[in-house]
């Protein structure tokens, strides 16, 4: 992908912070394609691939799937989209994800949208989502929060040090959050 000149924005934040919801809004206004790493992994799991059971176990335990699996799915989705601007939602989740993505694709993210929200509010959202996700139960949610704090926040710190993080207060109502998000995409041509 290194020679493709793709634009990538990483959309990060805790479980239930609203990454998927806001990405759907951004897509409608700014011409990006939305790639949720979690959605790609769940689709791969349901496709009956050889990695299916491994992915299912990891998601149920809130653990991070090995990056070669996730990166392969992201690369394929990018090439198949026909687009050159991507919101990558929920990836990278740890330092290893981040370094492997840069090494394999040669892509540096344009910036990072970071949705900040309290655990209390995120937990409330996840428990009332009701979309049959196997990880939306209180035991798994606690594990997801722990992995997020221990492994994913350091990735955000890494990009903060590079001046690439656009922090959004994601605890507000959906439309108010989007007003803040919109301001990160001036003129719609980033
Ligand atoms: N909602 C949204 N915004 C709201 C607002 N402002 N006010 C009130 N309600 C709001 O939103 C969650 C719920 O809240 C929805 O019902 C929504 O209507 C409401 P959503 O937009 O879905 O939040 P999101 O941040 O996308 O939450 P999600 O649960 O998808 O985040 P996770 O990061 O936990 O899940 P993901 O799918 O990215 O990953 C799942 C698992 O896959 C991981 O735990 C891991 O095991 C695995 N994974 C990897 O191993 N590697 C990867 O790279 C990615 C995933
Ligand atoms: Mg999501």
What does this structure look like?
This protein has 190 residues and is of the alpha/beta class. Helix content is 53%, strand content 14%. The chain has 8 helices and 5 strands, in the order E-H-E-H-H-H-E-H-E-H-H-E-H. A 5-stranded parallel beta sheet has the order 2-3-1-4-5, sandwiched between helices. The chain is globular, with a radius of gyration of 16 Å. Bound molecules: P1-(adenosine-5'-P5-(uridine-5')pentaphosphate and magnesium ion. The site of magnesium ion has 5 residues, from helix 1.
SSE topology:
Elements: E1 7-13, H1 19-30, E2 33-36, H2 37-46, H3 52-61, H4 67-81, E3 85-89, H5 95-105, E4 111-116, H6 119-127, H7 138-161, E5 165-169, H8 174-182
Parallel strand pairs: 1-3, 1-4, 2-3, 4-5
Tally the beta strands: 5
Helix content: 40-55%
Give the low-confidence spans: none
Helix/strand structural class: alpha/beta
Query: The biggest beta sheet, please?
Result: 5 strands, parallel
In short:
The protein is an alpha/beta fold.
Keywords for this structure?
binds P1-(adenosine-5'-P5-(uridine-5')pentaphosphate, 8 helices, alpha/beta, binds magnesium ion, 190 residues, 14% strand, 5 strands, 5-stranded parallel β-sheet
